[in-house]
């Protein structure tokens, strides 16, 4: 129960942060990606804050023998840059540039009551399911 409550509170905190920083506004994100037009650096500050907190917090968290609510840390072991990673990153970037959403802000933006995030989430789910048929 503690783990599920922590997940819920983490998600709420993440969503609140996205909302307060206006990252659920696709025009903000598209403004950041428009480096030759009217560039909006807001996303740069949000990313900088996230990276700063992560760099500091991970030093303390990973110095523990185990997480507070789990038996082991589950850290990525794959370190190579391969073709699927590159293709996936390109596809993600194209989708992000077209829609102005990535999954976290897309889910959070559902509270706005407009069609853009709903259509994005439908396409995101279909794209995620289509991965099953991607040749590995």
Overview of the structural elements:
The chain has 136 residues and is mainly α. The protein has one domain. 63% of the residues lie in helices and 0% in strands. It is built from six helices and no strands. It has helices at residues 2-20, 26-33, 42-61, 83-99, 103-108, 115-130.
The low-pLDDT segments are: none
Structural class: mainly alpha
Radius of gyration: 17 Å
Strand portion, in percent? under 5%
Oligomeric nature of the chains: single chain
Distance between the termini: 37 Å
Quickly count the domains: 1
Dominant shape: globular
Tell me how many strands there are: 0
Major sheet, described briefly? none
The percent range for helix content is 55-70%
Number of helices: 6
Rounded mean pLDDT is 91
SSE ordering: HHHHHH
Structure summarized in a few sentences:
With 136 residues, the protein is mainly alpha-helical.
């Amino acid at each position: 129960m503690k783990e599920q409550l922590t997940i819920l509170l983490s998600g709420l905190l993440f969503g609140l942060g996205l909302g307060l920083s206006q990252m659920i506004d696709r025009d903000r994100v598209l403004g950041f990606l428009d480096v030759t037009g009217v560039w909006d650096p807001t996303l740069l500050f949000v990313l900088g804050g996230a990276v700063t907190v992560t760099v500091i917090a991970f030093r303390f968290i990973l110095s523990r023998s185990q997480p507070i609510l789990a038996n082991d840390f589950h850290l990525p072991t794959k370190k190579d840059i391969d073709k699927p990673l590159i293709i996936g990153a390109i596809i993600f970037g194209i989708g992000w540039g077209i829609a102005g959403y990535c999954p976290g802000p897309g889910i959070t933006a559902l509270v706005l009551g407009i069609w853009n995030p709903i259509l994005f989430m439908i396409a995101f789910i279909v794209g995620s399911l289509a991965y099953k048929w991607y040749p590995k």
